[in-house]
Amino acid sequence: MMTKRGIRTKIxxxxxxxxALVLIMVAxxxxxxxRQYSVNEAKRQLEDAYETVTSRSGMGMGRGMRSMExxxxxxxxxxxxxxxxxxxxxxxxxxxxxxxxxxxxxIVAEAAKDSKVSLGVSSTVRVATSDGAYFVKSAKLSETVDxxxxxxxxxxxxxxxxxxxxxxxxxxxxxxxxITVVFVLFLSNGIVEPIYKLQGxxxxxxxxxxxxxxxxxxxxxxADLNMSLNEASAKLSDYNEAQxxxxxxxxxxxxxxxxxxxxxxxxIKYGVFTPEEASDxxxxxxxxxNRLVExxxxxxxxxxxxxxxxxxxxxxxxxxxxxxxxxxxxxxxKSGRELSITVMEKGMKADVVAEEILRALDNILNNAAxxxxxxxxxxxxxxxxxxxxxITDDGDGISEKDLPHIFERFYKGRSGSHGxxxxxxxxxxxxxxxxxxxxxxxxxxxxxxxxxxx
Length: 454
Prior knowledge:
Blueprint: H1 7-55, H2 66-77, E1 84-89, E2 94-96, H3 102-114, E3 125-129, E4 132-140, E5 147-154, H4 155-206, H5 220-269, H6 275-303, E6 313-316, H7 317-335, E7 338-343, E8 349-352, H8 354-371, E9 375-383, E10 386-393, H9 421-431, E11 435-440, E12 445-452
Parallel strand pairs: 7-9
Antiparallel strand pairs: 1-2, 1-5, 3-4, 4-5, 6-8, 9-10, 10-12, 11-12
Helix pairs in contact: 1-2, 1-4, 4-5, 5-6, 6-9, 7-8, 8-9
């Protein structure tokens, strides 16, 4: 398995590499600029020397001293000049050396001869020698004498200055990198430590500890993440409590019919009840138990996003309402309730999991039939981008006490069964991006289901 690097290491590596790259680029740029400066400065000094010499070439100077005298004239024109001079003939043979620079003079004269430098031409020429690169420039001393003043300057003098600056720059780069490492370590600690704290919080949440913890981070992103984890913790805590309540309620709801079935079965066994007397109760309680288990399984399947999740299909709302009415028609006939439907808008379509919406409508219709006095009315209308299904009964309505909790799981109102039917309806509708509302009309209860239209 590949070893994963920590955030601190990555920040250190990337930031240091970026800083090093910038500093190296600066060093390279400085080196190139230094070399260009050396060339330009050497050419400038050589050009100044040429101007100085040509302006005073008519002075009479004795032989044997002329090379040194010309060097002195050049330095009088520019005390900082590094230009030296020797007198050569047309074949670049030294006529008179500069006694201060005899060795370099011979090397330059030989290199100029090898490079076939043209004498008397005002251009500056670069020649390579064993002592490094030189720039040379010549001037004819007299029209009567075939001798030339060969002026030259070494680039090594300027390069030495540049090299010293580059040495200082390298030390500065090393110091900057060291400062960068210290700064990045300080910066990364400021990032990594909060992450460790948030990691600890997430682990505690994973272990079932939903205690709220605020680290008071100053960074917005970390503070937002801290808040999100606390919100997730609160939701998980609520969900955990809901699960506990759910299992307690399920256990209670299952226990009631099982206890009744067990009691009547024992009554038959010990002769307390005749089979005929007990059979109706046992069958009724078994049916109740079967419906409860079926509702719980359906609710669990609907809320699950895993295996068994059904794809949505585009369906006509009026067809779905009619199908639900047909599915509940038997219950309405047995209870003697009248059912009517009014479709104000036909052809409305919605993308739904048909079985889930049908189950929601079935439960609402059955609930309306149970609590109505004589009739139930169903209407289908269009409200903006939603199709609205209203189911109204003529019963006593929903009490103000029960109304806020009517869709809560296992909440049983007046003469309720097991308190899960309307919870299934609410979950199914909201899962489809719709809404479900319950209220009173003054002459009964009304349930409104709104589904987004396709």
